[in-house]
Amino acid sequence: MDADPLWIVPRLVERIWGRTDLDAWYGDAALQHTAPLGEAWLSDMGCEVEGGSTLGSRIEADRTGMLGDAAGSSPILAKLLFTAAPLSIQVHPTDAAARSSGVAASGKDEAWLVLDAVPDAAVWAGFTAQVTPARLRAAIVDESVLTLLRQIKVQAGDTVQVPAGTVHAIGAGLVLLEVQDPVDVTYRLYDYGRPRPLQVEEALAVANLDAASTPAANPADWFPDGRVLARAPRFIAERHTIGQGLTLQPDGRRYHILVPLAPGVLLNQRELRRGVAAFVPASGRPVTLGGTERASVAVLHAGPGLTSALSTLPAGGR
Predict the structure, then answer these.
(1) Hey, what domains does the chain have and what are their CATH numbers?
(2) Which residues, including other chains, have CB under 8 Å from residue 257's CB and lie 6 or more apart?
(3) Which candidate in 11, 19, 188, 231 is catalytic?
C-alpha cells in the first residue's frame, strides 16, 4: 500500500452541554456554529481528510491495507469533549447485551483522558454500593441518581476507564479525549430535566448494578519511553513523550491514530495541532514524530498488546 498518513479534519458536533468559545481550538470552523459545540470527532468514518474524500472512503478502498488485522471492523473512535454543563447519566451496552438485543455487533467500552479541568472537576463511574432496579428508579424520580455513583475528582493528566455496562456521568468544566469502540448506542437514565428522551428500561437491562470494583483511574503501566493510558478488549491508548524523536514503522497488522496531548508535536516535520488527529495506515509509510522534547502524543490502536511499531530516534536524529 505504501500510503502517507491521513490528516483528519475534525467533525464538530453541537451538544446542549457544550461550549461557545472553541474558536481558540478550531478558528473559523467553530465560529460558524451558533449553538454550543460539545464534541470534535477525530476518527469517525465520516470525517473528511485533507486532499479530499473521507476516512471511510479511504478505508473502504483497501480495508486490509488501512486497518490490517482489524479489517473487519471500523477504526477506534476518538473524540474531544468540551463540557460547560454536566452530561446525562448514562450507560452503554456490553457485548452480550448488544448482540442479544441486535442493536450492535459489540458493546461499547470507553476511556477518558483528561486534557484540561477546572478546580474540583469530577466524573462519575459505577455505583458506590450495590443498587436494585427499584432503588435506581426511585433515584431517577427524586433526582438523586448522582449520589449513588462513585465520584472521581480529576485533573489534567488523569485517565478514567469506563467498561461497558458501567453507569457513568461527566461533569462541567472539562476537556477530555474520549477513546471508545465505534458503537453509537447510549441509554440515558437522567438528564437534569433537559428536553431529551430517556431510555430507563433499556439502561436497566444492560447496567451493572453492583458496587464498582475497578480502580477509579487506570494504574499507570510504564514501559520504555511510554505509558499505557487505557486498555480495553478492542483498543489500547498509549502516551508517548517526544523526547529526541520517535519513528513509527507500520507492520501491516495494525493501524495507529495519533492525537497530540499538548502543543509542540510535529508529524513528518509538520505541526500536528491540538484538537486534530492523524491516521497512519497499517501498511503505510514510516512516519517520524518530533517537536518539543516534553510534548506528548496519544497513540491509539487495536489490541491486544502494546504497539511494537514505535522506536526512539538516535540522539541528534531529529
Answers:
(1) 10-206 (2.60.120.10), 221-312 (2.60.120.10)
(2) 42, 43, 75, 76, 78, 277, 278, 279, 280, 299, 300, 301
(3) 188
